[in-house]
Amino acid sequence: MTVDIVVCGLGPAGRALAHRGLAHGLSVTVVDPAPERRWTATYAAWLDELPGWLDPTVVAAAVDRPVAWGTRRHELGRTYTVLDTAKLQESLDITGAQVISDRATDIDRNSVTLASGATITAERVIDARGLARSPERAEQTAYGVIVDEQRAAGLEPLFMDWRTDNGANPDAPRSFLYAVPLGGGAMLLEETCLAGRPALDSTELRTRLQHRLRSRGIELDGTEPVERVRFPVEGGRPGRGRFGAAGGFTHPATGYSVAASLAAADAVAAGASPWPRSGRAVHKLRSAGLRALLALPPNDIPLFFDAFFTLHPHSQRAYLSGRTDLPGTAAAMTALFAALPMRLRHTLATAVLPRR
Questions:
Q1: Where are the domains of the chain?
Q2: pLDDT-based confidence at 253, cuts 50/70/90?
Q3: Domain 3-131+235-269 has CATH 3.50.50.60
Q4: I need a labelling partner for 156 at 20 to 30 A (CA). Which of 98, 215, 246, 253 fits?
């Protein structure tokens, strides 16, 4: 019997899509080599990105006015949330779906071939397997530690902090501090390379984090739980048969994809295209934004973010979260370009031209 939808991959995007398919009364099959694997990454989102159907208890912590630093301090007028990873996974219940522990090897619109040799047919087959790493793809990397909030009592929640107290050479690729509450009295302190080709490795980021925290009076004893992050920020291909990172949902200039996948899951499960024409145009603009970031000299990156965080909050939101908001994204990028120092404009204008 042909099922309504087969979802390949049970990360946050695939699980959300399968969950919403069941909510719409569809027959759902999911394929994943390790369907019982527990998620361990930290996921965060702006509160206004989360869909109304999502269980509100998955929000572990919220920061009403997170702070960002370029060369100066900026308060962001938008609530930022950190999700409880275990609760998120549990809330995306897929009871009622057929779960197949296997690896999808060949996917087309209406069928998928598995490593075992079996073939499954469906009205729709969706690839939500994420993205494989490649030297050709820019990546985001991070090294973080989880500490008791009391040990970081003097550190305010930080969306990003580009200040130079991490001991890195001024001419070296830049990284920033990300510091957010996790709920339950814990805080994640993470040194992050926003995007690089190649990106900074875990050893370098660990050294920078330790130096930065010491400079702020926070000593680590080596027993802290560690989080390591490494994933591509480019390479997803927008299309009706792909979802999540595999389908280009990763914001190329920020690395965020989970909130966008959650927000789109219900409509896509119901049959809507994940990529209307406006969304494809936004994807191209965001890819240009990534090229701009990669082209900036290290010392100019904080100036770039100073300009970004002085934009009107509506423009910031459009660029960060408006996956299909073409007018808002274009207006935000135009306003950002106008706000930058004149000497940076030529660098960015050259960088964002499409590569031949």
A1: 3-131+235-269, 139-232, 277-351
A2: confident
A3: yes
A4: 253
Is this model's pTM higher than 0.70 or not?
Answer: yes
Phi then psi for residue 94, to 5 deg, are -120, 25
Q: What is the mean pLDDT of the chain?
A: 94
Q: CB of 219 within 8 A of CB of 152?
A: no
153 or 64, greater pLDDT: 64
Neighbouring CB atoms inside 10 A of 133's CB total 11
Per-residue CA distances from 95 to 12, 24, 29, 130, 154 (Å): 16, 13, 11, 22, 44
Q: What is the 3-state secondary structure (H, E, C) of the chain?
A: CCEEEEEECCCHHHHHHHHHHHHCCCCEEEEECCCCCCCCCCCEEEHHHCCCCCCHHHEEEEECCCEEECCCEEECCCCEEEECHHHHHHHCCCCCCEEEECCEEEECCCEEEECCCCEEEEEEEEECCCCCCCCCCCEEEEEEEEEEHHHHCCCCCEEEECCCCCCCCCCCCCCEEEEEEEECCEEEEEEEEEEECCCCCHHHHHHHHHHHHHHCCCCCCCCCCEEEEEEECCCCCCCCCECHHHHCCCCCCCCCCHHHHHHHHHHHHCCCCCCCHHHHHHHHHHHHHHHHHHHCCHHHHHHHHHHHCCCCHHHHHHHHHCCCCHHHHHHHHHHHHHHCCHHHHHHHHHHCCCCC
CB-neighbour burial class of residue 1 (10 A; exposed 0-12, middle 13-18, buried 19+): exposed
Residue 263: how many other CB atoms lie within 10 Å: 20
Q: What is the mean predicted confidence (pLDDT) over 234-245?
A: 93
Tokens of 267: 């409509």
